[in-house]
């Protein structure tokens, strides 16, 4: 039982990291290690006119994938 999902990619020179995270996710896919990050969020099914608020975060900063994981753990309260 995963608490949340995080997918992160480092730049080729390991100077920058980009990440996407959702608290409640279904699956993660990275078809091309440098270009795609798909993290499917659990939303539905929803009835017509119904809405749902989901918690997520986009990361882009100087650092590594481990730094991104540390931010994720802090932002989502992962022990």
Topology:
Elements: E1 5-10, E2 16-22, E3 25-29, E4 38-41, E5 56-62, H1 65-76
Antiparallel strand pairs: 1-2, 2-5, 3-4
Please provide a written account of the structure:
With 79 residues, this protein is α+β, with helices and mostly antiparallel strands. It contains one helix and five strands, in the order βββββα. The longest helix has 12 residues. It starts with a strand and ends with a helix.
Radius of gyration: 14 Å
How does the major sheet shape up? 3 strands, antiparallel
| Portion in beta strands | 35-45%
Number of strands: 5
Envelope shape? globular
SSE topology string: EEEEEH
Uncertain spans: none
Strand order of the largest sheet: 1-2-5
- Mean pLDDT, as a whole number? 82
List its salient traits.
79 residues, alpha+beta, 3-stranded antiparallel β-sheet, two-stranded antiparallel sheet, 5 strands, 15% helix
In short:
With 79 residues, the chain is of the alpha+beta class. It is 15% helix and 37% strand.
């Amino acid at each position: 039982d995963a608490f949340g999902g995080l997918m992160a990619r480092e730049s080729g020179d390991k100077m920058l990291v980009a990440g996407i995270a959702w608290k409640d996710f279904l699956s993660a896919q990275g078809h091309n290690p440098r270009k795609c990050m798909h993290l499917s969020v659990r939303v539905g099914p929803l009835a017509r006119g119904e809405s749902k608020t989901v918690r997520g975060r986009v990361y882009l900063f100087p650092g590594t994938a481990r730094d991104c994981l540390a931010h994720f753990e802090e932002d989502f309260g992962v022990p």
